[in-house]
């Protein structure tokens, strides 16, 4: 795997143009830092692609685990970088504003590592099940696995609607699977297992135990405020205690109490509720008369 040489990195220029078009001030800090880090490693790679790509043979058999850190941050060429980072720009803006910068940084870091681990597991399992030892040497590089995981999150937080995949409208909840197949057939050279690993990591977060594990770990390491509870972008259904407003009364008891209070405040029971600008339904009027007779028998306003 070698980087294709270009006199002018057109993809990189398009990416920079898109970033400046959106406006640097409009891009949240973690998203902007992720873009800058990937651009930096594209221009100044720590290692050649063959020494940074991810494979079972290199990582597991040769114990070169640093590839888990290097592979998401390296790209084959400027167009590979452009498509991945353009997608990251859009997803990052939406998700970081929703989750908060600290938690989003935690998500990006976790997804980058875990996507690589799941990819290695998938390639190893396929090599064993299909009896294809060559699959262990398949080498993947790029940020696209993390992007598929973020796409699952984005679709989870924004359900409903459709996206266009090869001219066909696809519901948002199935969009990642449709794109997985579309990319595989349009560009057979892309890593199907790498993209699938990203989807599985995303599902582990929204449907599985990953988010709970991340919350537990953030508290264990002393970052209880990592999870942005109470932030404007965080949505959590908080059960309300309505007893503070209803005193624990049922709806019927509340209505009877309100009617009694109305009778007491009027001072003259001959006045009707209509005199105060509101009208009762026939059922409520019968209940008012019943309460009126009841209070008259007692000789004092019932409260």
Throw out a few tags for this protein.
303 residues; mainly alpha; two-stranded antiparallel sheet; 60% helix; 3% strand; globular
* Gap from first CA to last CA: 84 Å
Helix and strand pattern:
HHHHHHHEEHHHHHH
- Overall geometry comes to globular
What is the number of helices? 13
Q: Which percent range describes the beta-strand content?
A: under 5%
Instruction: Catalogue the unreliable spans.
Output: 229-246, 268-279, 298-303
The helicity comes to 55-70%
Biggest β-sheet strands, sense, barrel = 2 strands, antiparallel
Going by helix content, strand content and strand pairing, the class is: mainly alpha
Calculate Rg over CA atoms: 31 Å
Number of strands: 2
Q: Indicate the mean pLDDT.
A: 78
Provide a descriptive summary of the structure in words.
- This protein is mostly helical and 303 residues long.
- 60% of the residues lie in helices and 3% in strands.
- It contains 13 helices and two strands.
- It has a two-stranded antiparallel sheet with strand order 1-2.
- A hairpin with a 2-residue loop joins strand 1 and strand 2.
- It starts with 9 loop residues before the first helix and ends in a 5-residue tail after the last helix.
Please write out the topology.
Layout: H1 10-22, H2 29-43, H3 56-61, H4 67-70, H5 78-99, H6 101-129, H7 144-157, E1 162-165, E2 168-171, H8 172-186, H9 192-206, H10 210-220, H11 243-246, H12 251-266, H13 282-298
Antiparallel strand pairs: 1-2
């Amino acid at each position: 795997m070698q980087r294709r040489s270009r006199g002018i990195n057109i993809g990189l220029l398009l990416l920079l143009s898109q970033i400046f078009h959106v406006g640097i001030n409009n891009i949240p800090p973690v998203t902007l830092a992720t873009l800058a880090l990937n651009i930096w490693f594209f221009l100044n790679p720590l290692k050649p692609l063959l020494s940074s790509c991810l494979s079972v043979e290199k990582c597991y058999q040769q114990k070169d685990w640093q590839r888990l850190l290097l592979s998401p941050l390296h790209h084959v060429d400027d167009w590979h970088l452009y498509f991945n980072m353009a997608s990251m720009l859009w997803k990052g803006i939406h998700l970081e504003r929703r989750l908060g910068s600290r938690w989003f940084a935690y998500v990006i870091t976790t997804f980058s590592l875990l996507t690589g681990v799941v990819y290695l597991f998938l390639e190893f399992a396929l090599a064993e099940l299909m009896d294809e030892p060559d699959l262990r040497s398949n080498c993947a590089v790029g940020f696209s696995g993390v992007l598929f995981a973020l796409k699952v999150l984005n679709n989870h937080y924004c359900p409903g609607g459709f996206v266009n995949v090869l001219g066909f409208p696809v519901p948002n909840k199935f969009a990642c699977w449709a794109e997985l197949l579309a990319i595989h057939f349009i560009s057979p050279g892309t890593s199907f297992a790498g993209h699938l690993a990203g989807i599985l990591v995303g599902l582990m977060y929204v449907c599985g135990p990953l988010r709970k594990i991340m919350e537990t770990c953030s508290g264990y390491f002393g970052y209880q405020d990592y999870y942005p509870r109470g932030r404007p972008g965080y949505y959590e259904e908080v059960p309300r205690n309505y007893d503070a407003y209803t005193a624990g009364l049922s709806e019927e008891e509340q209505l009877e109490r309100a009617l009694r209070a109305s009778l007491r405040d009027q001072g003259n029971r001959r006045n009707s509720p209509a005199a105060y600008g509101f009208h009762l339904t026939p059922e409520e009027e019968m209940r008012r008369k019943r309460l009126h007779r009841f209070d008259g028998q007692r000789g004092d306003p019932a409260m």
